[in-house]
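[Meeting: bench + compute handoff]

Bench side (C.D.) handed over the final construct sequence. Compute side (W.E.) agreed to return the predicted structure before the next meeting so the bench team could plan truncations. Sequence as handed over:
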Amino acid sequence: MLNRRNFLALGGLVAGGAVLSPPLLALRAGAADLGARRTGAASTGPFQVRMPVPQTLRPVRSSAAGDAYQIDIRPADVEILPGVTTPALTYNGSFVGPTIRAKTGRPVTVTFRNWLDMPANVHLHGGHTPASSDGHPMDVIEPGQSRVYEYPNAQRGATLWYHDHSHHMEAEHVYRGLHGFYLIDDDAEKGLRLPSGAFDVPILIRNAQIDETGALVFGNPVERTVLTANGKAQPYFPVFARKYRLRLLNGSTEGSFTLGLDGVQFTQISSDGGLLPEPVPRTQLTLSAGERTDVVVDFSRHPVGTRLVLSDATAGPIVRFDVVGQATDLSRLPDELRPLPALGTATVEREVTLSFDMSGSMPVGLVNGQPYDPNRNDFQIKRGSTEIWRVVNGDTAWGFPHNFHLHQTSFRVLERDGGAPTLDDAGLKDTLPLAAGSVVRLQATFNDYVGRYVYHCHFLEHSSLGMMGQMEIVP
């Protein structure tokens, strides 16, 4: 379990894949092999199984009013390490839940039924939703009950995801498998002819610790040495010699991945909230827990038989792409993508400081010096207003990294540590990393809905310990 001693070890956790001590570094190249040796599985190394693409869910009903879906929250046995059975918490029985493909302007309802023996709920991360459907930490689905969530999709096309957000349990529930993709397609982007269909591939990247029985261990995040892509430990994925759109999500509960593709150049086309104004060539990018980015990789630049490995700079290989054949490619990568919305004029400035109180037997998460209290509104915000928030990681003494996630709307990063935003800060964001002592200024407009929403550290172990604030958006 995560106790004070283990928690203090997190002070050394930086932008790698949560694996820093020398004994753990020695294991990084053989995470799948490690699991096989512990469990007696047949696998003797990485890249033994194919990476699955999460199933796209079909509506149970469709009409002029929108699409309706149904998802069960239930335990299931899954296979993360080859040949090893692992108990998990799932959406519809799969370790990465089914993908919902929505459309801008077309509403969706999802009925979630809770078959667990404990309360759960669902937050659409990056969604602009009514407060009643945001998955507020205190709005839970009791065991045996169901709840209908309404998603208007009145926002730009983007790669979103849904996950549990029940307070004090959000980290463990997400760690044990309550996560899935929610993709919004936007007709305004059709003319761009970006890779689509089978060549548009969502990939949820995360880490795990699996014991000798095959069970997930919810303990010290530093010991999560098994790296997975779409629920499989270090899989391979066959691709044709053509362009692919890869939708990358850091679905870990804590930590960051610094990703590279064997030094090969790829092209970033989006961030959390949708397309960037223009493509950005990259050879490496960093995703903190909860962040997303879409990249285009042109595998036609490599001969058939080429193998390219997507790796974290610290923790090692995650997934290998095998170029297996030729294919017609009618997609393109245009010079311009989509302009960002105007910033607007800010009328309010606020400060948000994330930190821990380390004086007790267990750390207490704080926002502006106070732990989360669902009965307290920390900010009151007028709907339609534009604000600048100065977000600070105040844990300089301990060196703890954090990150910041804002519900209900996206924001733009104006400044990082007194200078320009980084490439990883570009575009419409809803989540961003904060090293110890780091300061970020961001600007957000709260156009959509009224009600209570939260903002918090998206290292979910931190928010579960109280590092969360609440805002009320009023007419």
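W.E. noted at the follow-up: Residues 237 and 321 are 5 Å apart (CA to CA). C.D. will use this when planning the next construct.
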